[in-house]
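Sat 14:20. Reprocessing the chain from the morning session after the first attempt stalled halfway. Input below, unchanged.
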Amino acid sequence: MRRSVLILSLLSFAAGSHAAIWQWPGAGAPCNSHLQACIDGVAAGDTIELATATPISPDDGLHFRIEKSLTLRNAIGVSPQLAPYVSLQATNTGATGPVRIVIEGIHLPNGRVIALQTVDQPLEFVARRLRIENPVNQNSAITLSRTVVGATAPVRGLIEDNDILTEGRQVFGTIYGAQAVSLSGGLDPGPLEIDVAYNRVRAFDTGQVSIMELTMPGGTGLARFHANRIEGRNFNTGIDVYAGSHAGTAFPVIIANNAITGQNGNVGSPAGIAVHASEGHLRADITNNTVIRGRNGILISARTDLGGLVQGVVVNNLVAYNRNRGIGIESELEASAPVPAGEAAPRGGSGIFNANNLVHGNGFDEFTPGSGTLTANPRLEYASFRLRPDSPARNSGHANAPLVLASQGIPMLDVDGLRRVKDAAVDIGAHEAGARSHLHVAGTANISGNQTLLEWDAINADPGAHFIATPNWNPAGGGGVYNNHYTGLYITGSGSALRWRIYNESLAAMPDGAAFNLFLPDAGSGSGHLTSAANITGTYTVLSNPELDASASLLVHARHHWNGYGSPNVYFDRPFFVGHFDEAWLLMAGSGTMPAGVGFTLTMQERSPNAFFHTSRNGNLTGNWSVIDHPQLNGKPCAQL
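Finished this time. Tokens:
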């Protein structure tokens, strides 16, 4: 999984050069008693890994406190859980310098995580891979806020890849609900830099609260809400940004690639996405979001009589089937000119520019449509709201929008964590169409000796298809079929008759019932490689193409291609693996030297919730299998991995 796909414009300012990693429960002090004693006793900058699945209770029964630079995370292969109604509180109380606190991989049933800047020193906070259900007393699941008045030191936050459930409850006829994420700058002049990305929120009957909220951003900085998924029913606002007073410059906010459905509030300015300035100034870039089946879609407003102002762009959004308003931009805020040609998000200028949005089936829309606006039926899949092959939103977005977002630190990935711009142009909405998957099961009709013929229209007749083939032992559940052999790919035929095959390198017969998950990403995410004397050193071959050479953080997948890329039909019956070493990507043979003339098909992309690493450790191993505990897979037997 991407462990930070966002390109943060900040560096960690509190990393210890000799930080230690502790395990709790541990054998030695300070981690051989209560967890709070371990937290208090380790040095600033250290890491504590929780290595127990037994619910963890604090001494006071209420919360654990972290008041220094520290990482608190799950041990690999372990899913630690706090006792119900227990919270984690992170502050920089007493700090005389920067503090960095990271909390990740922990389950908090009815709990919450609170991070507060309590003294005027830099605070960096990371909340990642947390699972939180129904926070105690209807508080926010994750809070990051300033409490010190007049702070000038920066607050920086990354809230990423969390799973949050919030369900309202009725008390004396009034519904009370909890927020998922609450952020506040407190109107103080210190920089505020926040990324909220790839979070999954289910919200039901939450009353008047906003699910994700940024209030009083104050001074300089940047807030980015990227690729969050908010779904449910009867919540007031999905993503809510509010500027209460003016700090001298417009605070920039980017809301991109989010998918929101089920909003139904009527308090304040409720919508799937709401941006409002009372006396403050905001610069809002609202790009490639999908907001459907709510009460209101995207609303932008300001108290211009009090000096409030919102500038920015509304581009490439899919807003459909909202009962009241779809897109609503107050007329005083609308730009006097359309988006300039070739520029999706103009810097400077006044008002809100809009272009290439798709609005359909809303009660009404309240804006002057810009160039490229569509009103046709978006043709969405019923359950997932992704684009069907015949959707008019495909290839209809403003071409420069993803590039502008990339310049602002937003990766060129959609809400699913898959690549943007798979076809001729970018799509409208949060989902980019193009990537495809397929289950292949070997049987008597497609087996010939050591091979099985693939019949899939996505790769038929395409010798350049760079796809992933992963064995699936039991796609139907229950018992499965083993194929204990290394496998490779090869092609036969030409033109429209060209077909791909999976074969056993050992020449052993392909067993009836052996199954493979196939995944074909976009055309731009793969390449071919042929080993040669020029790129071989001992056991490895150096991989190189512009994308690989530019990034050490990619997830790279390789499959042997028996007759691809000029290979003279070479078998490769051995394990191999890919890694990044000494500024280069290497493909290494698991045994023996790397021979020349071996072809490999490569696929690559930045890591994300849909492109992640799994490490087998004692905590997730049983016999010959390892449990993959991942929110995108859990409870989904039809998932293709």
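The CA atoms of residues 314 and 354 lie 5 Å apart.
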